[in-house]
Design goal:
The protein has two domains: 6-98 and 282-300, 3-Layer(aba) Sandwich (Rossmann fold), CATH 3.40.50; 100-273, NAD(P)-binding Rossmann-like Domain (Rossmann fold, 3-Layer(aba) Sandwich), CATH 3.40.50.720. The two termini are 33 Å apart. The chain has helices at residues 15-22, 38-41, 58-62, 82-88, 100-116, 118-126, 151-160, 186-192, 212-217, 235-244, 263-266, 282-300, and strands at 6-9, 27-30, 45-50, 69-72, 91-94, 144-147, 167-170, 182-183, 195-198, 222-226, 247-252, 271-273. The strands form two sheets. Strands 8-7-6-9-10-11-12 form a seven-stranded parallel β-sheet, with helices on both faces. Helix 1 (15-22) runs parallel beside helix 12 (282-300) and helix 5 (100-116) crosses helix 7. 34% of the residues lie in helices and 16% in strands. The protein is built from twelve helices and twelve strands. It is of the alpha/beta class.
Length: 316
């Protein structure tokens, strides 16, 4: 009797999803508690489940000669060497919709915190100061400009409708929106948006898309929100734009290096910083685990995959 295929879980996933995987037609090794042993555990693996901690490099793939599937329990696959996986014929899948609601809700919360000036008010009150002068502005009527208009951007736009917020978007892969958001070019988005909200995938081509030149083209007093990937923003240029007063503030859930090392940026009173928690709700992680386990089980049963990620320059 042939031995059942081995699935290695490299990063922690939802417990219920893990138990359901263990009931499938496979052996399961949970290596998430000891990353140092991962390469050894992969020697006989058919599939590997990762989140964002594990970097699926060409070297790691070489440690897994029998690997046919990398399953990312989340959206972005910038921690996976897609070229190396494609060269080996290893399929890569993700959970594209799992975090949509969680990230969209955090995004709207960050808008409100920035525009209303809530973070300084919270810290002042907690430190014993009672500062009740005119504070912040309303979100209503401010234009939000989305950099990238996929699932999350569209969900944010839907949540903004009751606030009376006009929305525009720049996305070279979206020629026209199917909702009330207006698709515009890059200079127009920078010039018109009161809040530039970043939701793009990270590629080799768009690293530091938001740089000194882009900040110079933004409206004076505009805000930046990044809940996508840190390297999309040049943090040194952002710090300069904040210190000069060109930008009124920024909310960052992601950073060029994580954990962040630019202490001067973090210590700016106009910066709200969170530790890459956009997808980290109980519900979001539950969906990510469930969706990725479904996909792994489909692969093991030889069924068509629903969330296959295209290799660079190719099709899924």
């Amino acid at each position: 009797m042939a031995e059942r295929p081995l699935v290695v879980v490299a990063d922690p996933i939802d417990r219920a999803a893990l138990e359901r995987l263990r009931g499938g037609p496979c052996r399961v090794v949970d290596a998430s508690g000891d990353p140092a042993t991962l390469a050894v555990q992969l020697a006989d693996a058919t599939a590997m489940i990762v989140r964002s901690r594990t970097k699926v490099t060409a070297d790691l793939l070489r440690a897994a000669p029998r690997l046919t599937l990398v399953a990312r329990a989340g959206v972005g696959v910038d921690n996976v060497d897609m070229a190396a996986a494609s060269a080996r014929g290893i399929r890569v899948v993700n959970a594209p919709a799992a975090a949509t609601t969680s990230v969209a809700e955090l995004t709207v919360a960050l808008y409100l915190f920035l525009v209303r000036g809530l973070w300084p008010a919270v810290t002042a009150t907690k430190s014993g100061r009672w500062e009740r002068s005119a504070h912040g502005r309303e979100l209503a009527g401010r234009t939000v400009g989305f950099v990238g208009y996929g699932r999350i951007g569209r969900e944010v736009a839907r949540r903004l409708e009751p606030f009376g917020v006009p929305t525009i978007a720049y996305d070279p892969f979206v020629p026209a929106a199917v909702d009330r958001t207006e698709v515009v070019d890059w200079p127009t988005l920078l010039a018109r948006a009161d809040i530039v909200s970043v939701h793009a995938a990270l590629t080799a081509e768009n690293r530091h898309l938001l740089d000194a030149r882009a900040f110079a083209q933004m409206k004076p007093g505009a805000y930046l929100v990044n809940v996508a990937r840190g390297p999309l923003v040049d943090e040194a240029a952002l710090l300069a734009a904040l210190k000069s007063g060109r930008l009124a503030g920024a909310a960052l859930d992601v950073f060029e290096v994580e954990p962040p090392v630019n202490r001067e940026l973090l210590e700016q009173p106009s910066v709200i910083a969170t530790p890459h928690i956009g997808a980290m709700t109980v519900e979001g992680q539950g969906r990510a685990g469930a969706e990725i386990v479904d996909e792994v089980l489909r692969a093991l049963r030889g069924e068509p995959l629903r969330a296959l990620v295209a290799p660079p320059g190719g099709r899924p």
